[in-house]
Amino acid sequence: MSVIDGALARLRLIFGRRTAESRFESELRFHVDMEAERLVREEGIDPAEARRRAFVALGGVEKHRESLRDGRGTAWLAGLSLDTKLAMRMLVKYPALTFVGVLGLSVAVTIGALAFSAVNAVTATALPLDEGDRVIAIRNIDVLKNDDARQTHLHDMDTWRANARTIADLSAYRIAPVNLLLEGMAPVSVRAVEMSASGFRVARVAPAMGRYIRDDDARPGAPDVVVLGHDLWQKRLGGKADIVGTMIELGTRRHEVIGVMPAGFAFPENNQVWTPLRLSALDFRRGASPSLNVFARLAPGASLSAAQRELATIGERLARDERATHENVRTRVVPYAVSFLDTPFAIRLLHLVQVGVGFLLLIIGTNVAVIVYARTASRATEIAVRTALGASRRRIVGQLFAEAVALTGVAATVGLVVANEVFRRIEQMVRISADDQVPYWIHLEITPVTVVYAAGLAVVAAVIIGLIPALKATKHQVTDNLRGISGASMRLGKSWTALLVAQVAVSVMALPFAAQGSWTWIKMMLVDYGTPATRSFVIAEPLMSLDDPQAPDTMRMRVRQARYAQGVAELRRRLEALPGGGEVVAMSAIPKQSGMSHFELETLPTDVDSIRARSQHDARAPRVEASYFKAFDVPLLAGREFNPADLTPGANAIIVNRSYHAFYLGGGNALGRRVRLRPERPGENPEPWMEVVGVVEDFPRPVGTESYAPLVYLPMRTEASYPVKLAVRAKNVPLATLGDEIRKTAMSVDPGLRFTSIQTVESLMQQEADTERMALLGIMLVGLSVVLLASAGIYALMSFTVTRRRREIGIRSALGASRARVLLEILAKALKQIGLGIAIGSVTLTVIYRLAGDSGTYLELVKMMLELAGLMLVVGVLSTIGPARRALGVQPTEALKGE
Amino acid sequence: MSPRNAPDTLRGSLDLLVLKTLSLEPTHGWGISQRIQQMSKGVLDVNQGSLYPALQRMEKDGTITSDWKTTDNNRQARYYRITASGRRALQQEIDSYRRFHVGLETLLRVSEA
Description:
By secondary structure, chain A is an alpha+beta fold.
């Protein structure tokens, strides 16, 4: 029999185990029938007796079946299915442990899978192009500012092209968002890209129709041409087959469509409109040209590291030769796909995330391990009995491991499902808010690699929580474990005490975040963003297209600002003049979207300590026009609203909301209090003081709960801001068409004005809240599961320790010790460990917060830590009392039996 | 030693007996035990309890193979058949048994003399 035949036969036997067994039984039945008939025939025995004798002669059927399994090498299969069955039964039998374990581990797996997939997605080095890993980005970095020096790229490209042998098809692009104008439709803002013709050669993707941009399209004076993406062609241009050769309008210029790229192509970032890049280094001073992104392919045979070396050398030469612009500039070459991440900050952040995730996995894994270990210890007698009955150590360890695998397997499945859902939601949110800004090759999704990773995590976790305790539990002599009192022989040494202390410490550190997260989450669920005003106003953010490509960045900014202010002012006038009257309010951001600013309150001698402690704080600080509060029905609670005088230079009025008033000013007199912006970096001069002139109600207004969303409103000077958000409503224009009306009006004012999305204030606030809520939900779940696990761990360890001392306690009470005294002593020991944990946790947390330097929230944390300490004590005492009482109930004779 | 119960002598030669029986014609497990008894004129009686494990083992080793057939009295039974490698194994078993037998005979004669 050949090896392959043998293997096939074995596979058939394994997979056809049930069939094989039932056939074997038929065979034995046939044998018994034949033998019984023979006995009746030849020896004249009664049929029933003949049958009995036939059975006896054959021996036990079960024995034969066993030998069939052994003979076919399938015995382990039966063992495995038994282990699985038992493991599943254990999951059901210990529902609390299953719940806590699965919850904790699935949170860990979810976070692990999310981080793993996200890091994988953003650090994948290959583009979805032919030899996509050989496309590279070249960038100059100003090492002093630790920033890009993109204004140097245009001139350096000539040097690179002339000197670098390791790269080919050197190309550049810049994103130039512009309005796409279509007959009878409102203008659409598209993220067009100006790209060198060689960029298409780098991509190596043939157009689906027509041709792509050639070098001569980029020479000065050449007709304006455009290449369209498949998506845009289908969605906006109706997929017209004769699109090539027609004209479309981009901003103010008409372009001839020369080609359509195939579906899925959106190189270099996430683009659907390509026009030629027409920049010449001759038109600019070195180092003051428009910002460009540069990319190329590695020359045939050249490696990434060779290109890195060569370009670095050229860069050093440039730094010597062109001191004025290049003294601190260094050239870097990175795989194109990761170039968007190639900033020290992003890389640090990724590392931080990975370290954080690793730490979290460790904490959760250890916690579950503690609980499972305690349970395994409490099953020492069962294990001993099984050993005595002939079960091998391997068999028992195998079964305990199977139990762990069942637990971690369920958790991994749950974790993957949750991670998948999280990604789905993130994708949804990204699609709404920044669809075309995410590079087209980055997809957040659970890939097969992630599933393998999660399975790996499950196995590692099973080893920690199953295998190690199992090996420990089966190490001792059977007799020890059989002697009577369960767990007596499993020792919890110093390391377990340390673990208990660590458990408490970790919980102390985790709970404040969990509590704060949960509290905010609950509050956010209650906020209603829908008011007559938020439902009727849409937010439109006009942006300016820069269709004067020859101007350098600095000049463009100035030109843009002037043109923008003029355009926005005219747009306002026209919107306000819409039939039936329109209403326009300018602001820097809706409250939820405005960034955090660092403030400092001028303290007064009469201020109480809590105000002093919070005098340095962060708050969102939107700039708004005077009409803002009336438009959104935000009642004035004290003082006044903004007036035109607040916009004059030197004016210093601010308005705070109710939360700010309550939280940072202690609810006392707010008017006349002075606040200033803290300098970004130490050593810088602080900004001038600003004076609170009014207090307004919280907006959006929380329902049924007090709010902690402190806001400082600053007065808005529309003409000096870019970009401005306009809240617009019009009496006779229905909400559904208001967006189009705004786009069309803006187009008639200045074709450079473009809008990304226009939606109601309510839905915008809702979106912001959704993102925030999701993050909070994450924090809350992680924090709560850590605390839950720690509590369960403390409970398990405590009750285990006391159970182990049952005999000692019994003996002591037999010798006359009073019950109260023994109980107190046990409690004292438990409390000592918990107290130590609380102390370590609090000190660590305090140090963290001191380092972070946020004294306002710090006070809150101290309060929460005290609450937490209480909770831990309660858990500790509760978990000690039950077993201790049971121990005290032990009859001295019983306790002494083992001696 | 009763002629019908000679397990000790049988031990080790069960494979030989099974292979020999199957080399004559394919048959089922009960048939094998009956045939051995008939052919040895009642001297050799296979322990039925050890027959099936042996058949399993030999099938796994590839010296015999089996398939299901209908018997004369219209019942389904598993018929065992000797394979080519089984025939080679049978020849080896016979040779080694004969050598053993000759050796044993010689020894007995010496000790009788």
